[in-house]
Amino acid sequence: MHRGGTIPVHFFGAVGYGYKSLLINIYGTGKSGAFTQTDYLGQVLKPYIQDFLAAFAAVLGPGKTPQFMEDGNSAHGHKTTSNICATWRTSMGITLFPHPAVSPDMNPIEKCWRRIKQALHRRLRQPTTEVQMVVAVLEEWDKIPQEWINGLIEQQDFWVHDLIKRCGWSTAN
C-alpha cells in the first residue's frame, strides 16, 4: 500500500468468521523494497501462522479445520511446490484453500485491503512518510468491524456461484 510519494508498505493480515488477526508489517529485502519469499517465511509464516490457525480453530470449535487462503502475491510461493514457503507449509501440514489465482472476489481479505485503501484516500491529512503510512494502515485495520468481516464470509457462497456463472463453468468441471 502506498499513497503519493511515500515508500510502499507491506502487511499481512488474516480474517475469518469471528476472527481478525493483528496486522503484521513486513519489511521487504527485495528490489525496491519488495518483500520476498524469504521475508514472508521469516516474518509471517514461521512466527505467526501456527498461532493464527490455532485461533481460527478455537473460533470454529471442535472437529472443524480452518482453511488457509493466500492472495496471488509471488512472495507466497504458489508457482512451484519446491520453493521455501511451499516446502515449509507442507512440512507443517498446512494446506492452502484452492481458488483461482487472480480472483479477488474469492478472497475476503482483498475486500479488507480495498476498504483500507479507500479510507486512506479519504483522510484529510495524507501520510507522507513510511512511518506515517504504517501508523495510518494500522489505524484503518483496527477500524474494520468484525461484523463486516463476518458478512464477507457469509457472502462467499454467493461469490463462488457468481464466479462460476460469469466464467461459464459448470459444477461438473
UniProtKB/TrEMBL annotation:
GO terms for molecular function: nucleic acid binding. It comes from the Eukaryota. Residues 32-123 form the Tc1-like transposase DDE domain. InterPro entries: RNaseH_sf, Tc1-like_DDE_dom. This is Tc1-like transposase DDE domain-containing protein. It comes from Mollisia scopiformis. The lineage of its organism: Eukaryota, Fungi, Dikarya, Ascomycota, Pezizomycotina.
